[in-house]
């Protein structure tokens, strides 16, 4: 199946025509969160980025199996080969069972991404639910000669692997540079080389999360879980592997090595990586005091936030930048996104009351083609949004009488907004922008009362209603075909 869709492939470092491995089926694996803390803005961007990919591929008629994992074991502090598991550390500090920590933050993550209107993945496997698959993968890598066991731990032999497969091809690093930049850390003496990494780690006596294995009680390496789970649910080679840019090295580079060492093939055909989010030009960090979790965004409870922001505002803010571009948060940027989204949503309401003309003075079909062209160009949501604002201009011009639209083109515009604004971009109408159904009914009654006052030439009451609504940031507009209202930000 040949699609007019181009994806920037991190592996080839260029845009490629997307061709699924199977005619109408797509396998997509995305690295999900390590559930030991509050979901934050850094979790929102990959969740939204790959939600867009999921939505658009389905819109094109493809059957997509979207797998997004939950990391609940094996991820050590500072991404090291030695030390404490992040979840076990949180459990020790809070005097909880590790799975209590996992459950608590998994529920929080699900609530946050649901509020952002991200569709649930097809499958959401957990590392702890696939220990058997990971042990079997370690066995195969050992049997293939690309790993070695020392004192109950198993390491991938990167130098041996590099003799048969190019190590570093995703990140662009060669083995010599990697060796030069690798620190000699305490506890690495049992490894043949500093670049080797653990695929199974012996558990120290105090390590809480541990499982029996042929090499003794231990736990899987952080990188191994994704290799085992992606191959289980999508096959040895699948279409798209996604995640944040910070995962390119070492995580995704290690995944490629593990898959080749086990299955003699790369795991994914296309690699997609979203860029990072900064806050006022700085990387997010708890030590900098600029670490804002999503719950704080929605409630406005963080000191850096001027007020609360609706989840749809956060989603629209993220979609205004291309997923491969850096994105800097500020209150001004979020408030500008809020106003922009309000204009888009208000235009969909205005469209419902437009009166059809005898002919059309604009080409809606050409606008629709531009929208598809934007999405086909590596899911270029900012360009798509620019075209949707052109649709807003057309709607407002038609409302003012400067443009004409036949009934057929009004329906096309309705379909355009339904397809791209709501279904693909995943934006939703919310009470802050348009009110719920009850609010609309109340406003209709108020405008009817005001209309009656005007008909009776009771201008005092008519003006009073208008002025009191204005105090509530509700603007009433009078036109030849009646009055309309809009919530102003």
What does the secondary structure layout of this molecule look like, with pairings?
Elements lengths: L5 E4 L4 E4 L7 E6 L10 H19 L3 E6 L17 H9 L3 H18 L15 H13 L3 E4 L2 E4 L1 H7 L10 H7 L15 E6 L15 E3 L1 H13 L3 E7 L3 H16 L4 E7 L2 E3 L2 E2 L10 H6 L11 H9 L7 E3 L1 H22 L11 H13 L4 H20 L6 H18 L12 H19 L3 H13 L2 E6 L2 E6 L2
Helix pairs in contact: 2-3, 4-7, 7-8, 10-11, 11-13, 11-14, 12-13, 12-14, 13-14, 15-16
Structural description of this entry:
The chain is an alpha/beta fold and 489 residues long. The protein folds into three domains: 256 residues, Rossmann fold (3-Layer(aba) Sandwich), CATH 3.40.50.620; 147 residues, Four Helix Bundle (Hemerythrin (Met), subunit A) (Up-down Bundle); 51 residues, no CATH class. The strands form five sheets. The chain has a four-stranded parallel beta sheet, sandwiched between helices. Strands 5-6-7-8 form a four-stranded antiparallel beta sheet. Strands 12-11-13 form a three-stranded mixed beta sheet. A hairpin with a 4-residue loop joins strand 1 and strand 2. Helix 4 packs across helix 7 and helix 13 packs antiparallel against helix 14. It is elongated. The protein starts with 5 loop residues before the first strand and ends with a strand. About 1% of the residues have low confidence.
Summarize the structure.
This protein has 16 helices and 15 strands. The longest helix is centred in the C-terminal third of the chain and has 22 residues, at 331-352.
């Amino acid at each position: 199946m040949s699609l007019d869709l181009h994806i920037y492939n991190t592996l080839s470092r260029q845009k490629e025509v997307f061709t699924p491995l199977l005619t109408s089926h797509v396998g997509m694996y995305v690295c999900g969160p390590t559930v030991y803390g509050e979901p934050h803005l850094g979790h929102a961007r990959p969740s939204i980025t790959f939600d867009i990919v999921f939505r658009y591929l389905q819109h094109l008629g493809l059957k997509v199996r979207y797998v997004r994992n939950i990391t609940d074991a094996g991820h050590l502090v500072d991404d090291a080969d030695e030390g404490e598991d992040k979840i076990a550390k949180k459990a020790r500090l809070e005097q909880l069972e590790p799975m209590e920590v996992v459950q608590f933050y998994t529920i929080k993550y699900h609530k946050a991404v649901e509020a952002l209107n991200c569709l649930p993945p097809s499958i959401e496997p957990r590392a702890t639910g696939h220990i058997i698959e990971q042990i079997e993968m370690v066995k195969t890598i050992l049997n293939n000669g690309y790993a070695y066991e020392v004192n109950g731990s198993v390491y991938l032999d990167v130098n041996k692997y590099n003799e048969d497969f190019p190590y570093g091809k995703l990140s662009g690093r060669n083995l010599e540079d990697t060796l030069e930049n690798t620190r000699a850390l305490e506890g690495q003496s049992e490894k043949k080389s500093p670049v080797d990494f653990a695929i199974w780690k012996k558990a120290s006596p105090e390590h809480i999360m541990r499982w029996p294995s042929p090499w003794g009680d231990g736990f899987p390496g952080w990188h191994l879980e994704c290799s085992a789970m992606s191959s289980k649910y999508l096959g040895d080679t699948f279409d798209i592997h996604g995640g944040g840019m910070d995962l390119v090295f070492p995580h995704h580079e290690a995944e490629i090595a593990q898959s080749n060492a086990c299955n003699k093939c790369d795991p994914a055909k296309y690699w997609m990586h979203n860029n990072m989010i900064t806050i006022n030009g700085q990387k997010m960090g708890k030590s900098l005091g600029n670490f804002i979790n999503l719950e704080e965004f929605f409630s406005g409870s963080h000191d850096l936030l001027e007020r609360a922001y609706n989840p749809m505002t956060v989603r629209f803010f993220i979609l205004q930048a291309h997923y491969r571009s850096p994105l800097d948060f500020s209150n001004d940027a979020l408030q500008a996104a809020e106003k922009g989204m309000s204009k888009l949503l208000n235009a969909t309401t205005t469209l419902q009351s437009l009166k059809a003309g005898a002919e059309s003075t604009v080409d809606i079909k050409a606008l629709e083609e531009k929208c598809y062209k934007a999405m086909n160009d590596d899911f270029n949501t900012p360009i798509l949004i620019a075209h949707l604002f052109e649709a807003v201009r057309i709607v407002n011009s038609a409302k003012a009488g400067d443009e004409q639209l036949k009934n057929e083109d009004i329906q096309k515009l309705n379909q355009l907004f339904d397809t791209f604004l709501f279904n693909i971009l995943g934006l939703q109408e919310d009470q802050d922008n348009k009110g719920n159904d009850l609010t609309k009914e109340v406003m209709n009654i108020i405008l009817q009362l005001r209309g009656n006052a005007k008909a009776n030439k009771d201008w005092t009451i008519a003006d009073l209603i208008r002025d009191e609504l204005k105090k509530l940031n509700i603007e009433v507009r009078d036109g030849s075909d009646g009055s309309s209202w809009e919530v102003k930000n």
